[in-house]
Amino acid sequence: MEKIIQFQQVTWRRNSREILKDINWEVKEGEHWCILGLNGSGKTSLLNIVTGYNYPTSGKVSVLGNVFGKTNIPELRKRIGFVSSSLDQFSQNLHKEITENIVVSGKFASIGLYEEVSEEDWVQADQLLESLRLSHLKGKSYRSLSQGEQQKVLIARALMSKPEILILDEPCTGLDVLAREEVLQWINDVNERDCHLLYVTHHIEEIVDVISHVLLICDGEIVAGGPKKEVLTDERLSETYKIPVTVRWEDNRPWLTVPKAKVF
Predict the structure, then answer these.
(1) Residue 62: what are its φ and ψ, rounded to 5°?
(2) d(Cα 253, Cα 210) in Å, to the nearest integer?
(3) Less packed terminus of the chain by CB within 10 Å, N or C?
(4) Carries keyword Transmembrane (predicted)?
């Protein structure tokens, strides 16, 4: 089985501080992973290494068969779709665009269209919008969309380049329950996209059926990683969240409970 991502004893330091410590992690073909951890646990740093924006201080990294130090990182990034709150820094430019332009821009990894768009590109964007039930948003400005609709458009944009890895970094943050469940329902269809999902969240109830594996990270170290039902135990989650918790499963979906008497 092909290794989609491989970290071997990866450490990353910033200003002499170890942010990630001896990370050993593999994503194999056909696996979809959720990365769980508190703020500051190292989740974003891990993603930044996968996408080549951070380079490991020590250790070896391979993504889609490309060994870091022996590959063209900008070319590798074209094979990775990324939806993150970091796109908020471009909100002023996004608000000027209409829905279909934002989706098509995903092919060029740009905010705004600065290159020639082919008829095939527009057709692909239309097909994406239709498959994600977003056709009714065509012609509408990004500014006029609800927060949930904006997030769905950004996911469509990430899919425009037909990525082999799709990274969704807390895509449900700020969404109401209805918008969140709609996004999660779409995520469940990721198998039809022929890509590998890395889903980052604080909330285990967002771990839907399609997610097969979970990586728990705390203070820059891996607590556990593997098939989700083996990893999501009371003991491991309590260690990850630094507070006693219990997990229950309903319809193959995990839910977290914090016993009130044990919070402090």
Answers:
(1) -135, 130
(2) 10
(3) C
(4) no
The structure tokens listed for 161 are 């380049």
What phi, psi does 115 have (nearest 5°)? -125, 165
pLDDT digits (tens, 9 = 90+) for 34-49: 999 999 899 989 999 9
Cα angle: 130, vertex 31, 183; to 5 degrees: 35
HSE-up of residue 226 (Cα within 13 Å, Cβ side): 8
Q: How many CB atoms lie within 10 A of CB 175?
A: 19
- CA dist 84 → 50, 156, 166 (Å): 14, 13, 11
Of the pLDDT bands very low, low, confident and very high (cuts 50, 70, 90), residue 1 is very low
What's the pTM value of the predicted model, to 2 decimals?
0.87
3-state secondary structure of 187: helix
Average pLDDT over every residue of 75-95: 73
> Across the chain, where does the E strand assignment appear?
3-14, 17-28, 33-36, 58-63, 66-67, 80-83, 165-169, 196-201, 213-218, 221-227, 246-250, 253-257
Q: Closest Cα to residue 223, out of 35, 44, 58? A: 35
Q: How far is the C-alpha of 118 from the C-alpha of 140, rounded, in Å?
A: 21
User: Could you tell me how far CA 185 lies from the centroid of its own chain?
Assistant: 15
Q: What's 98's DSSP letter?
A: B
